[in-house]
Design brief:
heterodimer; A: 258 residues; mainly alpha; MetI-like fold; flat; B: 258 residues; alpha/beta; six-stranded mixed beta sheet; four-stranded antiparallel beta sheet
C-alpha cells in the first residue's frame, strides 16, 4: 500500500511537472482550460449531452432486443435453418466490419436522398438506426458467446424432460447465458455511449457538436475538455460497475470450485 | 429380429431395442443391440468404460440419433419417422452421471419446470407433487436451495426426483453414482432401491456390481458395442459363460469394487 502510494505520487508528479514546465504550457492552459469559456460552455454542452444520453437509452434498449434475436438465429441448429444462420452471419460480418461513421453517413445521407415516399428523412431517426444496426452486430456476438458457454449437458437435461427446443432455450440456456455476459454487455454499452458523439456528423446538436460550435465562436478548445469531462462522468461509473461484477463473478466461481 | 419374436411380444413390454447401431464417425459404439425390458423390470448394464452403456441409454432417450435399428416404448416405435420426440421424452426419464441440474433455479423450480411447461400442470399442483416427492426422499428442507449448495448425493437425488416428477414409464440411469464419493453413493442407491420396490421400470448403466447383483432382475454385459451376455445376476456374477465377462468381473474384483 505504501509502495503503491509512493510510486504513484512520484510517477504522476513527474509527468505533471514535465507538462507544467513545458515551454508551451501557458498557451496550452489558455486554450484548453479557460475558466470563463468553461463557465459558458458547461450548461450548453451539458444540454447537448442530454441528447447523447437519450440517443443512448433508446439505442441500447433496441440493441439489447435485436441482438438477442440475431444471436438466437445464429445459434439455431439443424440444416433447415441454414438460410437464417447465413443471414445472421452475413449481417454480423457486415456491420461489425464497417466503421460506425461510414454506416451513419451512408444511412443518414443516402436513404433520405433516395426520396422513397413514406420513409422518413429525419436525420435523428437515421442516426439512431445506424447506431442500432452497428451495435446489434457486436452485442449479438456477446450474447452468442454466452449461449455457447452453457454446457450441452444442460440442453440434454432439458430436452430429456420433454421441453421443446424453444422452451429449452428460453428457460434453461438463455438465463444462464445472459448472467454470464452482463459484464461484456455493459462494456458494449460504454462503447455505444461514446459512439453517440458520431451522430453529430448528421446534424443533431449533441455534446460534441455543441462544443465545436462554441469553439468556433470563441476560438478556444475548453468546450472539448468540458465535453470529455461530462462523458467520463457517465462512462467511468459504468466501468466501475463492470469491474465489480467481474470480481464478484470470479469470487463466486472460486467459491464454487472449492 | 425375426417375425416370430415380434408376434410373441409380451403385453407388458416397456421397452424393446432391435438391432440398434450407432457410430461416432469411424468409431462403432453400438453394434446391433437387441434388448427387451418388461414392465417393472430392473435391467443393469455393466461393462468397461467405452463399451457403449451410456450411448445406449442416450439413444433410447433419442438424445443421440441411431444409425440403424428400431426402438419401441410401450409397443410403439419411437424411432419411426415423424414421431413427436418431445412427447416420447416425457415418458422416458433419464438421470445423468453429472446430475445436470439447472444451476440458476431452486430445487423446487428444477423439479416443477417440465411439469408446468410441458404437461401444463397448474403451478400449485406441480409444487405440491414436487414437495411430496422431496419429502419422500428426505429432501424437503432443500426445496428452496440452489443446486450448488447441495452435496453431490443430494443433487443426484434431486435429479432423480426431477425425472420422476414427469411420471415416466421408464427411468434410465446413466452411471448415476460415478461422480459421488463412496459415502454418498449409499444414499442415492437407497433411492433406486425404493423405486425398484415401488415397481418402477429401470435400465441402469452402473459400475456398482454389488448393487447390480442386489437389485437387478437381469444383468447385461456389454463389450465393444454388443450385449455379449445377459442373464439373472446370480448367473452372470457367479458363473459367467463368456470369457470376456469373466475377465471383466475379475478386474472389478481386483479393483475392490465388488
Amino acid at each position: 500500500m505504501l509502495v503503491a502510494t509512493i510510486s504513484t505520487v512520484v510517477v504522476f508528479g513527474l509527468v505533471g511537472w514535465i507538462i507544467v514546465t513545458s515551454p508551451g504550457w501557458p498557451r496550452f492552459q489558455a486554450q484548453f482550460f479557460d475558466s470563463t469559456v468553461f463557465d459558458y460552455a458547461l450548461p450548453r454542452v451539458f444540454a447537448g449531452l442530454l441528447v447523447n444520453v437519450s440517443f443512448f437509452l433508446v439505442a441500447e434498449a433496441l440493441v439489447l432486443v435485436f441482438a438477442l434475436v440475431l444471436a438466437a438465429m445464429r445459434s439455431l441448429k439443424g440444416p433447415v435453418f441454414m438460410p437464417i444462420r447465413l443471414f445472421a452471419i452475413i449481417y454480423i460480418d457486415l456491420f461489425r466490419g464497417l466503421p460506425s461513421i461510414l454506416i451513419i453517413y451512408i444511412l443518414g445521407f443516402g436513404i433520405p436522398a433516395l426520396g422513397i415516399p413514406g420513409l422518413t428523412t429525419d436525420v435523428y431517426v437515421w442516426a439512431l438506426v445506424a447506431l442500432v444496426l452497428t451495435w446489434t452486430a457486436y452485442v449479438a456476438e456477446v450474447y452468442r458467446s454466452g449461449i455457447e458457454s452453457v454446457h450441452p449437458s444442460q440442453e440434454a437435461a432439458a430436452r430429456s424432460l420433454g421441453l421443446s427446443g424453444y422452451q429449452t432455450f428460453r428457460y434453461v440456456v438463455l438465463p444462464q447465458a445472459v448472467r454470464r455476459v452482463v459484464p461484456p454487455l455493459l462494456n458494449d454499452a460504454i462503447g455505444l455511449m461514446k459512439d453517440t458523439a458520431l451522430i453529430s456528423f448528421l446534424g443533431p446538436i449533441e455534446a460534441f457538436r455543441r462544443s465545436q460550435m462554441i469553439e468556433g465562436a470563441r476560438f478556444n478548445f475548453t468546450p472539448y475538455v468540458v465535453s470529455a469531462m461530462l462523458f467520463l462522468l457517465l462512462t467511468v461509473p459504468l466501468s466501475r460497475i463492470v469491474d465489480r461484477m467481474i470480481q464478484r463473478d470470479r469470487e463466486r466461481y472460486l467459491a464454487g470450485a472449492r | 429380429m425375426t417375425a416370430t419374436m415380434a408376434t410373441l411380444r409380451p403385453a407388458a413390454e416397456a421397452l424393446r431395442i432391435e438391432g440398434v447401431r450407432k457410430s461416432f464417425g469411424e468409431h462403432l459404439v453400438l453394434d446391433s443391440i437387441d434388448l427387451a425390458v418388461a414392465e417393472h423390470e430392473v435391467v443393469c448394464l455393466i461393462g468397461a468404460s467405452g463399451s457403449g452403456k451410456s450411448t445406449l441409454l442416450r439413444c433410447v432417450n433419442l438424445l443421440e440419433p441411431i444409425d440403424a435399428g428400431r426402438i419401441f416404448v410401450g409397443g410403439a416405435e419411437i424411432t419411426a419417422r415423424g414421431v413427436d420426440i418431445d412427447r416420447i421424452r416425457r415418458r422416458i426419464g433419464i438421470v445423468f452421471q453429472a446430475y445436470n441440474l439447472f444451476p440458476h433455479m431452486s430445487v423446487l423450480r428444477n423439479i416443477t419446470l417440465a411439469p408446468i411447461k410441458v404437461l401444463k400442470v397448474p403451478r400449485e399442483q406441480a409444487e405440491g407433487q414436487a414437495t411430496e416427492l422431496l419429502t419422500r426422499f428426505g429432501l424437503a428442507d432443500k426445496r428452496d436451495s440452489v443446486p450448488d449448495r447441495l452435496s453431490g448425493g443430494q443433487q443426484q437425488r434431486v435429479a432423480i426426483v426431477r425425472a420422476l416428477a414427469m411420471q415416466p414409464d421408464i427411468l434410465l440411469l446413466d452411471e448415476i453414482t460415478s461422480a459421488l464419493d463412496p459415502v454418498l453413493v449409499a444414499e442415492v442407491l437407497s433411492v433406486i432401491r425404493e423405486l425398484a420396490h415401488a415397481g418402477m421400470t429401470m435400465v441402469l448403466a452402473t459400475h456398482e456390481m454389488g448393487f447390480a447383483r442386489d437389485i437387478a432382475n437381469r444383468v447385461c454385459f456389454l463389450d465393444a458395442g454388443r450385449i455379449l451376455e445377459e442373464g439373472p445376476p446370480s448367473q452372470i456374477f457367479t458363473s459367467p459363460r463368456e470369457a470376456r465377462t469373466r475377465q471383466f468381473l475379475d478386474r472389478v474384483i481386483e479393483a475392490g469394487r465388488m
